[in-house]
């Protein structure tokens, strides 16, 4: 089976009727980039940078971060590498940051909120990512966005990092794309506005499901409510794609839903441009794509958006 799949490695991802979609890989460490490329990834759609910060006693320096980002970028030889800025908090703690104890960590001091509260920490990372952009195609991505002001503040910090690097004579890609994760209903429902402020968006379904369903993604006793195919989740994905395209920007999806074969026709039908998944799923999904008709996928998506619950959606997808 693996041997049969291998023939898809260097092929583009296209449906039977010629609709193009791009399949990328999620990684947590720079060392995984090379293997992702070998498994047919057309880029890195999500580099979870927080792993660089975990299991140690202090913050990684700008040099350490730069080395890791550069390594991933060089391994991908010109293909895009989407580096997500620090997404800590929620279930992922950093003892050395002395983060406050909270009643609701998933609704608390995390990700972009923490970074904007600690601009020195954030600037170090932004500088490291900008420096890595000199060695390939880097896309910088912000996690847990809920408000336009978070994007404005980040743009100001990126501008400051650029100015510093220019003054220091350190090279970077002045065209580096900046995008956001859409993983809260607040961001999803504001896509018409937020889409005008960024170069791309990427849907984080793991958190979007959690926040839409008001269902802790780690809590076993309510896991029946954690429903990626709930019509309220799918309607948001549909709206995000529609409004992002109206703004002339592309839409990625990088949550676990992207690896599910049963979701794939639906995501094509809704018009998602890029899907980022665990590298081991890429070739099988690419093979599936070749047997699909995009018109049928669109009709499937249209009917799914009229469903009342996840059960109905799942029976349509069968
Ligand atoms: C997501 O929320 O869907 C996502 C890709 O990010 P993470 O799983 O790291 O929260
Ligand atoms: Mg997330």
TrEMBL record:
Residues annotated as domain PEP-utilising enzyme C-terminal:
4-292
Signal sequence extent: none
Uppermost EC category: transferase
Query: EC number(s) per UniProt?
Result: 2.7.3.9
**Can you provide one Gene Ontology molecular function annotated for this UniProt record?**
phosphoenolpyruvate-protein phosphotransferase activity
Q: Which GO terms describe its biological process?
A: phosphoenolpyruvate-dependent sugar phosphotransferase system
Please give the GO cellular component terms listed in this UniProt entry: cytoplasm
Question: Which locations, inside or outside the cell, does it occupy?
Answer: Cytoplasm
Which positions bind Mg(2+)?
A: 183, 207
* Keywords assigned: Coiled coil, Cytoplasm, Kinase, Magnesium, Metal-binding, Phosphotransferase system, Pyruvate, Sugar transport, Transferase, Transport
At which positions is phosphoenolpyruvate bound?
48, 84, 206-207, 217
Predominantly, its location class is: cytoplasm
Which coenzyme or cofactor does it need?
Answer: Mg(2+)
Active site at 254 (proton donor)
Catalytic activity from the UniProt record: L-histidyl-[protein] + phosphoenolpyruvate = N(pros)-phospho-L-histidyl-[protein] + pyruvate
User: What job does the chain carry out?
Assistant: General (non sugar-specific) component of the phosphoenolpyruvate-dependent sugar phosphotransferase system (sugar PTS). This major carbohydrate active-transport system catalyzes the phosphorylation of incoming sugar substrates concomitantly with their translocation across the cell membrane. Enzyme I transfers the phosphoryl group from phosphoenolpyruvate (PEP) to the phosphoryl carrier protein (HPr).
Entry's family note: Belongs to the PEP-utilizing enzyme family.
Q: What is the protein name given in its UniProt record?
A: Phosphoenolpyruvate-protein phosphotransferase
């Amino acid at each position: 089976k693996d041997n049969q799949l291998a023939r898809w490695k260097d092929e583009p991802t296209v449906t039977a009727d010629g609709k193009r979609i791009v399949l990328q890989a999620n990684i947590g460490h720079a060392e995984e980039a090379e293997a992702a490329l070998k498994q047919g990834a057309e880029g890195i759609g999500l580099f979870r940078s927080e792993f660089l910060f975990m299991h140690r006693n202090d913050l990684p320096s700008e040099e350490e971060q730069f080395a890791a980002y550069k390594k991933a970028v060089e391994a991908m030889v010109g293909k895009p590498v989407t580096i997500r800025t620090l997404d800590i908090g929620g279930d992922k703690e950093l003892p050395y940051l002395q983060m406050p104890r909270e009643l609701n960590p998933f609704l608390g001091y995390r990700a972009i909120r923490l970074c904007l509260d600690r601009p020195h920490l954030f600037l170090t990372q932004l500088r490291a990512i900008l420096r890595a952009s000199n060695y390939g195609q880097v896309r910088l991505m912000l996690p847990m966005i809920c408000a336009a002001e978070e994007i404005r503040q980040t743009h100001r910090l990126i501008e400051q990092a650029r100015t510093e690097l220019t003054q220091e004579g350190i090279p970077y890609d002045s065209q580096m794309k900046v995008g956001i994760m859409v993983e809260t209903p607040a961001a999803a429902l504001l896509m018409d506005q937020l889409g005008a402020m960024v170069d791309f968006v990427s849907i984080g379904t793991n958190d979007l499901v959690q926040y839409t369903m008001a269902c802790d993604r780690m809590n076993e006793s309510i896991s029946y409510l954690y429903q990626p195919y709930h019509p309220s989740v799918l309607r948001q994905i549909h709206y995000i794609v529609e409004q992002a395209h109206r703004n002339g920007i592309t839409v990625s999806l990088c949550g676990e839903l992207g690896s599910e074969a049963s979701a794939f026709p639906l995501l094509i039908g809704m018009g998602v441009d890029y899907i980022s998944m665990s590298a081991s799923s890429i070739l099988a999904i690419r093979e599936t794509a070749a047997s699909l008709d995009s018109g049928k996928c669109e009709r499937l998506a249209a009917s799914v958006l009229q469903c009342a619950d996840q059960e109905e959606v799942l029976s349509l997808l069968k």
